Amino acid sequence: MPPHDSPDLNDLPLAELYATLAQTGLTRRLIELARDEDLGPQRLDVTSAVATNADDRLRVRIVAREACTVSGLAAIPEIVQAFEAGVLYEPLSADGQRADPGATLARLAGPARAILALERTTLNLLGRLSGIATRTVAFVEAARRGAEGAGLGPDRVHVCDTRKTTPGLRVFEKYAVRCGGGRSHRLGLHDAVLVKDNHLAHVPIDALTDHVRTLAARARAEHPGLWFVEIEVDTLEQLRAVCRAEPGLIDIVLLDNMPPDVLREGVAIRNEHAPSLRLEASGGIRLDTIASIAATGIDRISTGALTQAAPAIDVAFDAES
Predict the structure, then answer these.
(1) Closest by Cα among 174, 276, 173, 294 to 229
(2) What pLDDT score was predicted for residue 1?
(3) Known active-site residue 59
(4) Which of 78, 256, 265, 314 is catalytic?
(5) Is 174 among the residues known to form the active site?
(6) What is the location of CATH 3.90.1170.20 in the chain?
(7) Which of 133, 157, 278, 286 would give a disulfide with 69, using CB separation of 3.0 to 4.6 Å?
């Protein structure tokens, strides 16, 4: 397995991935927070309390109002548990599947007050995550077209997320990226080393090779479970310096904010001097530019646009008679 890929995130089927992320406790904490901000300290939906009877029953379809790639269905059992709802959940689609406008994604049946109480939390999460998954599909498909157009394999380049996620929603949003065919870069500061420009601001170019060599060796000695060690560079001169480090110390070099012609030159430098290094392009990646970046022969493209700029998908509860 390539050193830059996490077996816990990028090689797991989606169901196992969600279960792995849920084991952190972060999914349940977010759901409980969403419940508490909606129902308040007394866990009360005052509208449903006066508009329905305690023994009323309700059956609803969860419907996609627009075309999308689905993400978030895996969270619904946790939502039902957190709301202590006694609601039956029937999935009719699956995370990662495409859905047409009007498609029924799932059904819920149970006490009316319980279903109405969890409605907004469910729809907010489904809409947000499906929006990210749908946007990720567009980026992944554009990158594949760019790679194929350059005579490279369609899976030559991986499209990765970043840490530019909504506070508290990171594990959900990274799950949504996977649902859209993207890859997880790293969960946080705790699981991989990414040495950025601010870490290297004090290091002169003639000392950079020794500096990153020492830093990488220390990281691997002190934190043997790291997913990867990555160094960010702003110039090709810095790339050449990093390439002089011994093979195996550094897994990835991030080429920051470089146009396609410079990225191609960087790929050539890597191929000549350090062919085992993976190269990642990042900075200002847009849907209309990712194909040209993928065509350079880069290995990875990371962009916060997958999570930061994704519009929510319109999803609704439709009551059944």
Answers:
(1) 276
(2) 30
(3) no
(4) 256
(5) no
(6) 14-133+311-319
(7) 133
Nearest alpha carbon to residue 284 among 270, 302, 300, 271:
302
Q: Mark whether 237 is an active-site residue.
A: no
CA–CA gap between residue 150 and residue 154 (Å, rounded): 10
| Residues of the chain where predicted confidence (pLDDT) is lower than 50 | 1-6
Output the pLDDT for position 8. Answer: 66
Residue 82 tokens, joined = 């957190």
230 is catalytic: no
Q: Which CATH number fits domain 14-133+311-319: 3.90.1200.10, 1.25.60.10, 3.30.1360.20, 3.90.1170.20?
A: 3.90.1170.20
- In whole angstroms, give the CA distance from residue 313 to residue 60: 18
Please tell me the predicted confidence (pLDDT) of residue 240.
Answer: 97
Residue 3's pLDDT is 37
Active site residue 43: no
Other residues' Cβ atoms within 10 Å of the Cβ of residue 59? 16
Strand partners of residue 106: 62, 91
Full-model pTM: 0.94
The letter for the amino acid at 15 is A
From 59, 65, 107, 164, active-site residue: 164
Active-site residue, selected from the candidate residues 196, 213, 220, 264: 196
